[in-house]
Amino acid sequence: MGISFDLGGKTAIVTGANTGLGQAIAVALAGAGADIALVGRSSMAETEAAIAAAGKGRSHTIKADLSTIEPVKDVIDQTVTWSGRADILVNNAGIIKRADAVDFTEADWDAVMDVNLKTVFFLSQAFARHLIAEDKPGKIINIASLLSFQGGIRIPSYTASKSGLAGLTRLLACEWAGKGINVNAIAPGYFETNNTEALRNDADRNATILGRIPAGHWGKPDELGGAAVFLASQASDYVHGIVLPVDGGWLAR
Ligand code: NAP
Predict the structure, then answer these.
(1) Domain assignment of residue 202, yes or no
(2) How many CB atoms lie within 10 A of CB 58?
(3) Is the Cβ–Cβ distance between 58 and 51 less than 8 Å?
(4) Residue 37, domain member (yes or no)
(5) Which of 4, 34, 53, 180 is the most exposed, fewest CB within 10 Å of its CB?
(6) Using an 8 Å Cβ cutoff, are 27 and 47 in contact?
(7) What is the CATH number of the domain that holds 170?
(8) Distance separating alpha carbons of residues 155 and 146, to the nearest angstrom
(9) Which listed residue (121, 127, 149, 158) is catalytic?
(10) pLDDT tens, 205-226?
(11) 68 assigned to some structural domain
(12) What number does the ligand 1 atom closest to the CA of 91 have?
């Protein structure tokens, strides 16, 4: 059997697909041939246009606020109603709150844990229930972080959520690998998106971060697409429970 990165005939669900890394991942998966359910709370017009312009996979928008688990079953149901199937889930939507640990509020703790970890688990559960009921294989790709490996500063709930997400990725891989569901994560380094705007606007933090990246530049969102296509495709069928850094060499330093 040859190695295939082709996603033709597959349907992927991408959360937070309106901007940043989620948008780049959605466009990359569509470029490999997948149809994409674009899930989020904001307009997906830009992503829909980019996918249409590429002329490969189709896209369909599903409105959902992922700050609670209320919409999770509906996201799977609407995807299947639209395309007849759901093969790939990319848990990308995430938020970050910055404050010194001594000042950090319960609200900022809960908000981050809810979107970055709780909803990810229950959406993955709804997706896996669908696959298991249909006796079909599937792929889950969680968007982790360098804070899955490192401590960071001033982002306690973010670090807790992303470190927890690495553990959850491994647990779900252990439970579901035998059912033909691959669960893996990508740990992006420092990418140019809304998430990192505050860091890039801080001249000192920007210089410190840039000085440690062997590749010498902040990641551009489309530099993440290849890893997502790999983990979504047949090429990664024997890959389970990894957290794959795409970081310009940051962790190698
Ligand atoms: P971003 O531009 O801020 O994108 C975050 C995405 O999550 C947006 O689409 C956002 O939608 C969505 N989202 C947040 N809360 C949501 C909610 N309650 N319901 C539905 N969607 C929600 O940042 P990004 O960098 O692309 O982040 C994407 C993922 O990568 C996150 O999990 C982040 O932690 C992770 N990450 C980013 C970096 C980096 O350097 N940029 C590094 C490591 C990991 P709205 O636009 O509607 O808010």
Answers:
(1) no
(2) 15
(3) yes
(4) yes
(5) 53
(6) yes
(7) 3.40.50.720
(8) 12
(9) 158
(10) 999 999 999 999 999 999 999 9
(11) yes
(12) 32
Atom of ligand 1 at shortest distance to CA of 66?
19
C-beta of residue 72 within 8 angstroms of C-beta of residue 119: yes
Dist. CA 172 → ligand 1 center (Å): 22
**pLDDT(1) > 80:** no
* Ligand 1 midpoint to CA 158 (Å): 12
Residue nearest to atom 17 of ligand 1 (CA): 66
Q: How far is the CA of 64 from the centre of ligand 1 (A)?
A: 14
Does the pLDDT at position 60 exceed 80?
Answer: yes
What contacts 144, CB < 8 A, 6 or more positions away? Answer: 162, 165, 166, 169, 185, 186, 187, 243
Residue nearest to atom 42 of ligand 1 (CA): 188
Q: Among this protein's residues, is 158 annotated catalytic?
A: yes
pLDDT tens for 187-201 read 999 999 998 999 999
CA of 184 to the centre of ligand 1 (A): 18
The tally of domains found in the chain comes to 1
Nearest residue CA, atom 32 of ligand 1? 94
Whether residue 6 lies inside any domain: the answer is no
Q: Which residues line ligand 1 (CB under 6 A)?
A: 16, 18-22, 40-42, 65-67, 92-95, 115, 143, 145, 188, 190-191, 193-196
Q: pLDDT tens digits, residue range 77-107? A: 999 999 999 999 999 999 999 999 999 999 9
Nearest to 200 by CA among 222, 217, 223: 217
Contacts of 111 (CB under 8 A, 6+ apart): 67, 95, 97, 157
